[in-house]
Design brief:
Layout: H1 2-24, H2 30-52, H3 63-90, H4 93-100, H5 103-114, H6 121-138
Length: 139
């Protein structure tokens, strides 16, 4: 139940965020906007780590974990969000957001191929529904 609640909270904030992004990008280049966003988030997280005494734990993180978390950051927070910012700057946020939200299709396929996770009938039906949703929004 706890996982589901956190997923719902994430959904809520990910649903709100594009509205703020679109409003902020009116007179701002997406490259600058992503940099601004990253600076704000980094500052908040650094304060949080220092305030909770967790900053010292960074030294115990393995190089392998740094690599994979770093790659996740480059894919999601840099390249993915940069593409997203350009898309919402020049497109309709109500169309762009659902299309960008089709990422679980890529995740499910790669999780099966690279992580050995099972590709179940439920995941197949979910992927088909996502594709159909994207196609409907695209029209």
């Amino acid at each position: 139940m706890k996982t589901f609640i956190f997923a719902l909270i994430g959904m809520l904030f990910w649903g709100i965020a594009p509205i703020f992004g679109k409003m902020g990008l009116v007179q701002v280049n997406p490259n600058i906007a992503l940099s601004m966003r990253s600076i704000v988030i980094t500052a908040i997280l650094l304060v949080w780590l220092l305030a909770t005494g967790q900053a010292g734990s960074l030294a115990s993180v393995t190089p392998k974990a740094w690599l994979f978390i770093g790659l996740e950051g480059v894919c999601a927070s840099l390249l993915g969000h940069l593409a997203y910012y350009y898309a919402i700057k020049f497109g309709e946020v109500s169309q762009i957001s659902p299309i960008m939200s089709g990422f679980p299709i890529v995740t499910v396929m790669l999780a099966a191929l690279l992580l050995g996770e099972k590709f179940t009938p439920a995941k197949l039906i979910g992927a088909i529904l996502i594709v159909l949703g994207v196609l409907i929004i695209k029209r």
